[in-house]
Amino acid sequence: MLTSTYPLKALCCSIEKELIETSSLLRVDLSGGYYDAGDNVKFNFPMAFTTTMLSWSTIEYGKRMGSNIKEARDAIRWGTDYLLKCATSTTGKLYVGVGDPNVDHKCWERPEDMDTSRTVYWVSSKNPGSDVAAETAAALAAAYVVFRKVDPTYSKMLLRTAKNVYQFALQYQGSYSDSLGSAACPFYCSYSGFKDELLWGAAWLFRATNDVKYYNLVKSLGADDQPDIFSWDNKYAGAHVLLSRRALLNGDKNFEQYNQEAENFICKILPNSPYSSTQYTHGGLMIKHPDSNLQYVTSITFLLTTYSKYMAATKHTFKCGNVVVTPNTIRNIAKRQVDYILGENPLKMSYMVGYGPNFPKRIHHRGSSLPSIAAHPQRIGCQGGFDSFFYSSNPNPNILVGAIVGGPNQNDQFPDFREDYSHSEPATYINGAFVGPLAYFAGIH
User: Which residues form the Glycoside hydrolase family domain (predicted)?
Assistant: First the structure.
């Protein structure tokens, strides 16, 4: 996975055979899936979001991917194969994570050398997790749309499981953060609650089935939240853009409220809008959070390109106050973000590893920073990687081609320091959201 030139391959995979023994002595095969970032833990909440975004990218921009469409489908299937196992292995449980993050984060070792407990976590009717369950349903439903023509048998299984998992999320409502405690927080707490995931999951099931049942759920869940962000935690803006497609492309007036919600969101993003709540660096990068900011940039950029595509198809425009917004208005802001990430910035630094002449060399990632088995056959234990490799000022021995790191600070500066995980750590959900914009602009140019 460290030599590909295609960004999807940077979504680091869990390849070990994980047969987890639970307290009831039930052995469950939870092999596969993706580690979230530079660690050796599988957090299903961000993993499912990554899978949803990869699927949405393929749905919207698959025709622009050319021969890479197969790699896109393979990356999605790697995620959905694992999520299917998590949803169907045991009746009454949805597995939502593998590996104790509090133990894992005290180690710096290769995945091949892991000796930490591969603790398994789940939600159930007694310990609900509507957020992670509804996001899982969204991922499976979105993947159904990707595979329904190319693999009907697999797609039917995806849709059937998505419906079941969503029903579980709806019937047993509660946040997985409350159920899992320190296994979820502070790593991937559901800060926005679970209503956004219920809306997001219903929106994807409606997209997949056109079933009035899910339309009614969407309407009942409402669209009262007005975010200026889109991420693995907060899905409102994504749901609004997804649902707005019916209004813009199909002329369905029942969905005009989501059209308005999507435009309210965009008015908070555009720098020249009177309603903007988004800061930009001197070099032109959107700033939403001091830590791992590019995760928000790539996700929001995806929404900008997608909504501009919908607008262009119908010659639609709208206003932010007195500012007229055209498809080109949004497209230009999105392109500025893509170009910045790929190297058009004050440091001339590409934040996609391996792309261009200047890119991060000391990323916060175990597999990249530790020598390969071929170069160092001896085992590296839990603490063994810190002194020799983690704290070393040397560049990483393995170039994780295509991985996008957390990015620069609000002053356009990037120290390229391995210990600075908030800026130097790559994550699957940064890459997963960036695939769509890359395909979009590659198709245009």
Answer: 27-437
